[in-house]
Design brief:
This protein is α/β, with parallel strands linked by helices. Among the domains are: 210 residues, Rossmann fold (3-Layer(aba) Sandwich); 76 residues, no CATH class; 71 residues, no CATH class. 49% of the residues lie in helices and 13% in strands. It is built from 22 helices and 14 strands. It has a 7-stranded mixed beta sheet, sandwiched between helices. It has a 3-stranded antiparallel beta sheet with strand order 11-8-12. Helix 3 packs parallel to helix 4, helix 17 crosses helix 18 and helix 19 crosses helix 20. The longest helix is centred in the last third of the chain and has 22 residues. The N terminus is likely disordered.
Length: 516
């Protein structure tokens, strides 16, 4: 039996992505807005951590001991290499869920996170995880779960089945002998579906957007496609289906982990908002909401035996919540995208709030309230604006000073190791912030500039020279938006321009985040 038949795809490693929703600090604001008492997280767990980018960012960005498992040994080895570099309290295993969940040396947890895996595992594994949550999550503890859902996946279900059938037929004829060949089989399956669509089948005629979605798949990383589409166990589930499992495990639905979901005006029309307001049953209401927004992926927080806040306590906790500006003030665009499309944010409301945060200093909502008091902007409006700006990536949540100081040495060691990796590869494009307790997107080129700054004195000219030498030595180019081919005649000039821009614009923010 090949590993494709067995349902795992160990031949192909996953991408080196980062998920901010797995940061326990991120759950605090939306749960407060929903009226829940926030949990103090002393222990945390991630199930199915991939290469361990998220779990290592969060372990190094806090003093919280993290535990977790991933079935892929190469994933776990890489994750443990990162945790060893940081010296963080992360206990990471290469075990199946059945083995990990049966361990007798695990603590009770205040936070358990899983991104995507709920859709990609068997019913038996889902039952194991539900039992694990029921046994190992503390009262008041939070579970983050993200999963593919309906109805957004409805049109793609037959497409996925067609791709999977092609892959199975291909691997029965010739099982992949290497990761590269396995990735090639994935690409062939997607191309095959494109050729089927070119024949104008009846399914495509009544589902005209399918061709566009398949074309988008052809530009994706094959490693992402393999894990997203080609597991044997692959099941988009409705909210009501997931709710049945998690409520049986003793959980109560808290709220969406997507901050933009907390602002109905950008996601639902007036008639939809009125209809949802009249639905008391949580499972029915959320299922209807997904139908209205045609949602394809849910990101949710669930709470075990939650306590609710009265209005006065909620307002006190909101006023104490801290955020900071994560972008240059001048580069913030007052637009946000919701289910209804792109929306323009009112400058009269958002500009004063952004001006109060322009110093990139951790700032409480109470301080923002005081700063804008002459503009008659009440706390609930400030909280909603902060939530939307955070969901758009403009703001970051900030942990308390004690946690920041405990996290500084851990994040510094992890970031130093990642910047050293940048000399030869561009896999990890995130660094850990002790201020936000999260991973911050940082390109390979920026990491090389930081490494040059750490290793030697000097300014942008020296950073550019160092980065150019590193890129030429590795015979590589920088991926993403900051692509530079170090072998081109004008490469040195381009690198110097980027180094100057980094020093003037990005470095001050990285310093405020405790990264530089």
């Amino acid at each position: 039996m090949s590993e494709w038949d067995a349902g795992s795809i160990n031949a192909i490693t996953y991408t080196h992505g980062y998920c901010d929703e797995l940061n326990p600090l991120r759950s605090r604001l939306p749960l407060l807005l929903s009226g829940f008492v926030p949990q103090t997280v002393r222990t945390a767990c991630e199930l199915g951590f991939g290469h361990g980018i998220s779990v290592n960012m969060h372990a190094a960005g806090s003093a919280t001991p993290w535990f977790g498992t991933d079935y892929n040994p190469s994933h776990a080895d890489f994750a443990r290499q990162l945790s060893g570099s940081a010296g963080s309290q992360a206990a990471l295993f290469a075990e199946s869920f059945s083995a990990f969940c049966a361990r007798d040396d695990l603590p009770q947890f205040d936070f358990i996170g899983m991104h995507g895996i709920w859709s990609w595992i068997s019913d038996e594994d889902r039952a194991l995880i539900a039992d694990f949550i029921q046994r190992k999550l503390n009262v008041g503890g939070v579970v983050y779960v993200a999963y593919n859902t309906q109805p957004g996946w409805a049109a793609m279900l037959p497409v996925r089945e067609l791709m999977h059938c092609h892959l199975q037929a291909r691997t029965r004829d010739s099982a992949p002998s290497s990761p590269a060949q396995a990735e090639a089989h994935v690409v062939e399956a997607v191309d095959f579906v494109r050729r089927v669509l070119d024949t104008q089948p009846g399914y495509a005629l009544v589902n005209p957007l399918v061709a566009e979605r398949v074309d988008a798949l052809r530009s994706e990383n094959p490693r992402y496609l393999a894990h997203e589409y080609f597991n044997r166990d692959w099941q988009p589930m409705s909210f009501s289906q997931v709710s049945a499992s998690l409520t049986a495990a003793g959980l109560t639905y808290g709220c969406s982990a997507d901050y933009r979901d907390h602002v109905d005006e950008i996601n639902l029309n007036e008639a939809q908002r009125a209809m949802l307001a009249g639905i008391a049953d949580t499972a029915l209401r959320e299922t209807v909401r997904d139908f209205c927004t045609n949602r394809s992926m849910r990101r949710d927080y669930w709470v075990k035996a939650p306590q609710m806040l009265d209005m006065a306590s909620r307002q006190k906790a909101l006023r104490a919540h801290r955020v900071m500006l994560a972008l240059p003030r001048a580069s913030v665009v007052l637009k946000v995208r919701g289910a209804l499309g792109e929306a323009t944010l009112p400058e009269s409301l958002y500009s004063p709030i952004l001006d109060a945060l322009a110093s990139h200093r951790p700032t409480t909502l109470a301080e923002i309230e005081s700063s804008v008091q002459g503009r008659a902007i009440p706390l609930p409006v400030i909280a909603k604006a902060v939530t939307l700006l955070t969901g758009a990536g403009v703001l970051l949540n900030v942990q308390d000073e004690g946690q920041i100081e405990l996290a500084r040495p851990l994040s510094e060691r992890l970031n130093a190791a990642i910047c050293e990796f940048a000399l030869s590869q561009a896999d990890v494009q995130f660094l850990a912030s002790p201020v936000s307790g999260s991973g911050i997107a940082t390109s390979r080129l920026a990491q090389l500039f930081l490494l040059a700054r750490r290793r030697q004195s000097g300014g942008p000219a020296q950073w550019a020279e160092f980065a150019g030498a590193a890129l030429r030595a590795s015979q590589s180019s920088v991926g993403g938006a900051e692509t530079v081919d170090a072998h081109l005649p004008n490469a040195d000039h381009e690198l110097l321009e980027k180094a100057n821009r980094f020093g003037n614009t990005h470095l001050p923010i990285l310093q405020a985040l405790g990264i530089a």
